[in-house]
Amino acid sequence: MNSNTISTAQNPEAEEEKVTENGETELLHDIKDMSDEVEPKTGVSFPLLLGDGKELKALGVRKKNLLGLSIKVYSFGIYADNQKLTSVLKSKISKVEANATKEMCRIVIDNPVGITVKMVIVFSSLTMSMVRKNFEETVGAAIKKLGGEKTDLTKRIMGEAKDGTKVHGKVVNKFESEMLCRAFVYLYLGDDPLDKEAKEKFGMSLLSLF
């Protein structure tokens, strides 16, 4: 199963949560930021290396059109386990192209390569109800594109989330759904990614592994 997501507060110094590969939500107390990379459109810094060893592959911004305006909702960093990523890609690709292909990104989406997405909210007016609605719409659509049934998967993840919820090192939600994990990664690496430049940069990082 792919690991999926980290959700953070607006304060970059706030404690952060992630959904790990086994679906448990936990705090990231151990981010080892030997050095950072700054997402230029928002000014948010992302560590090049997470505490579990995953490396930063690409940065991007999630935008949303609101009343004719393009609003920056959150910036994100896509991390991956190099060892798993290299092993899976080399086992499935015999000939490397000059540019990253759709096939390469689909391999990442469909296989357990240890992907984590770190998100930092930059839109100050964002509420949990807005997050829940967007999550259900976007991930639900991705599930359908991947040939799955939306059912209640998205509601199971976001249903108990409330504004102002704080987590202190305890598991607040747990899920096991390969389809949900694939759908989330599809949002960033699929046919219509949230940030095309981020997908392109991630693709370049895949080529560097060969």
Structure description:
- The chain is α+β, with helices and mostly antiparallel strands.
- It has helices at residues 82-92, 102-110, 128-145, 153-158, 178-189, 196-207; strands at residues 5-7, 17-19, 25-27, 36-39, 44-47, 55-66, 69-80, 115-121.
- A 6-stranded mixed sheet has the order 3-2-1-8-7-6. It has a two-stranded antiparallel ribbon with strand order 4-5.
- A hairpin with a 4-residue loop joins strand 4 and strand 5 (44-47).
The geometry reads as globular
CATH fold description: Chalcone isomerase
The ordered string of helix (H) and strand (E) elements is EEEEEEEHHEHHHH
Helix content: 25-40%
User: Distance between the terminal alpha carbons, to the nearest Å?
Assistant: 23 Å
- Look at the helices and sheets and give the structural class: alpha+beta
Radius of gyration: 16 Å
How many extended strands? 8
What is the total domain count? 1
The major beta sheet can be summarized as: 6 strands, mixed
Q: Which spans of ≥5 residues are poorly predicted at pLDDT below 50?
A: 1-33, 159-175
Q: In CATH terms, what is the architecture?
A: 3-Layer(bba) Sandwich
Kindly report the spatial arrangement of strands forming the biggest sheet: 3-2-1-8-7-6
Q: What's the layout of helices and strands?
A:
Layout: E1 5-7, E2 17-19, E3 25-27, E4 36-39, E5 44-47, E6 55-66, E7 69-80, H1 82-92, H2 102-110, E8 115-121, H3 128-145, H4 153-158, H5 178-189, H6 196-207
Organism: Deinandra increscens subsp. villosa
InterPro entries: Chalcone_isomerase_3-sand, Chalcone_isomerase_sf, FAP1
GO biological process, one term: fatty acid metabolic process
